[in-house]
């Protein structure tokens, strides 16, 4: 502590001043011969100033050293050196089978949300078995809107995990049906680039895993994967390359699915033009995890939510009740019997808010934190407690 050194510093300064004063009084400023130590007063002043400076430097360094000792020069920040990168890059609200514990992984919950949507749509591996064994398998294409950073693409299109971090969320048992063509569309250029690298890795792994066919036998083509950076909400803005790719995949498939995993509520001006396009122009089925407005939301809740959706980048026309969502799907051309909307809010918002709070605490021990996602944590907590926003799995089949 600095105050600990102040009295001794003060005493030293006073002693030095008295010594110089007495020397100057008796011998004058330049009387080297008379001075008992053989130095002039100005030499004595210089020496004493040097001593004072030395004391000051000692004081400052000791103060710095004690404060460092208190804070510790190491602390816990080096924990960052043990974090693994690359890491999972899933980014949806997740389906939390159980309330989060310290060992629960976000990536697992995210992958479970995709599996929940696929299962509801009848697109899980189990459902495809009969057709695969009796030779009546139907060829399928998937148009994946807002596919994220590539983990979703890897799960849907790879037979095995590609990176070691994929093993955290990989699930052999409940794998998806085989899609013969995959077309991903995202608006985010950075995510599109990141995901493209993942797809390149996947293609390299496929090549290494498949031995070359014996001479004279034609190699079986792998399912195609193509990623595009475009606004999924505005089909008329899709460039000719994307349109041709979709058309060609559509022509080579018996069934076409459009997936919007935790994405369509972002669509501007609303998701409805896209839904019309999927049903009429693509003649495709639609599956999504999406958000709805509770039919019991109060006026105050709606007002507050409306402001919040501005920050969330989610246009207000997307917030309709599950019943109104169903009616919109029917207006687009889907038959009422082929539409299911399942409310899974209880397994989404509150557990997600709990996980985010715990993760923030864990990261703070390393001097990190969840940053701006803290606002999202409060929002999900509100949705979970009030029920004002509903998380739904939507399936509309052709
Ligand atoms: C919550 S994230 C979900 C990402 C991914 N589906 C997952 O589960 O990890 C929403 C994604 O939708 C994308 N997105 C938002 N609006 C879009 C639009 N109009 N067209 C295409 N993608 C969009 C964002 O870039 C973001 O990657």
Description:
α1 (2-27) packs antiparallel against α2 (41-71). Mean pLDDT is 88; it is low at 1-7. Helix content is 47%, strand content 12%. With 398 residues, the chain is α/β, with parallel strands linked by helices. It folds into 2 domains: 2-73; 106-207 and 222-396, Vaccinia Virus protein VP39 (Rossmann fold, 3-Layer(aba) Sandwich). The structure holds S-adenosylmethionine. S-adenosylmethionine is lined by residues 90-92, 110, 145-148, 152, 185-188, 191, 231-233, 261-263, 266-267.
Structural topology:
Elements: H1 2-27, H2 41-71, H3 106-121, H4 125-134, E1 140-145, H5 151-157, E2 181-186, H6 189-209, E3 224-229, H7 240-251, E4 255-261, H8 272-280, E5 285-293, H9 299-312, H10 322-332, E6 339-343, H11 349-364, H12 373-386, E7 389-396
Parallel strand pairs: 1-2, 1-4, 2-3, 4-5
Antiparallel strand pairs: 5-7, 6-7
Helix pairs in contact: 1-2, 8-10, 11-12
This protein binds S-adenosylmethionine.
The site of S-adenosylmethionine has 22 residues, from strand 2.
Strand content: 5-15%
The overall strand count is 7
Shape: elongated
- Number of helical elements: 12
CATH architecture of the largest domain: 3-Layer(aba) Sandwich
**How many distinct domains?**
2
* Sheet with most strands: strand arrangement: 3-2-1-4-5-7-6
Major sheet size, sense and barrel closure: 7 strands, mixed
What is the CA–CA distance across the termini?
Answer: 76 Å
Calculate Rg over CA atoms: 34 Å
Say which molecules are bound, naming each kind only once.
S-adenosylmethionine
According to CATH, the homologous superfamily of the largest domain is Vaccinia Virus protein VP39
CATH topology of the largest domain: Rossmann fold
Write down the CATH class of the largest domain: Alpha Beta
Helix content: 40-55%
Q: Unreliable segments (pLDDT under 50, ≥5 consecutive)?
A: 1-7
**Structural class category:** alpha/beta
Order of helices and strands: HHHHEHEHEHEHEHHEHHE
The average pLDDT score comes to 88
InterPro entries: SAM-dependent_MTases_sf
Organism: Decorospora gaudefroyi
Protein name: S-adenosyl-L-methionine-dependent methyltransferase
